[in-house]
């Protein structure tokens, strides 16, 4: 069963609006409806390209993938940012395109009211950050404080960094990269060495050419002297 995580991550109640305008968007119900159509134990193939959205919708989709009885394989083909990165962490076998990115950051919201209201909002956001970090911990094994620090800095990860830190299991087309690297490392001399040798050869040939000219002149002079005798 193929499932695409495209466009913003939204609540179930908003899905019809995006569908009405034929705009890509992903809600928990949309994903769960597709999962329910899969046969018992059927593998899921998840394609991700999303800038994120609702953290709570992302959490529900993350949980659905983690809870699926069959294998769940996924590919980040463009961007997995914010809530979409949380969803990606629910995929057991996750790969990333060499041109794709993962972005993690702290939760944000809008608020109004007095100081107590603002403090409640701050406490809520801090709690959400810790919950988000749990998803990253399950996938990477990195400690929570390190992850929270990465989230505070709004960390962007390219394919190599994502694999090195454990956010993904593999990089797509990795074998092709290795093959290219092998071909490029087949004993060929570096360009700078070749250029240096060519310059040396050129200088040597110029020297020999000048020597030959001098030798020819000396020979001609000798022949001229013999003729004049």
Automatic annotation (TrEMBL):
Pfam families: CLP_protease (PF00574)
Domain of life: Bacteria
InterPro entries: ClpP, ClpP/crotonase-like_dom_sf, ClpP/TepA
Molecular-function GO term, any one: serine-type endopeptidase activity
GO cellular component terms listed in the entry, alphabetical order: endopeptidase Clp complex
Alphabetized UniProt keyword annotations: Cytoplasm, Hydrolase, Protease, Serine protease
Keyword set includes Hydrolase: yes
Any single biological process term in GO: protein quality control for misfolded or incompletely synthesized proteins
CDD domains: S14_ClpP_1
Protein family according to the UniProt entry: Belongs to the peptidase S14 family.
Full protein name: ATP-dependent Clp protease proteolytic subunit
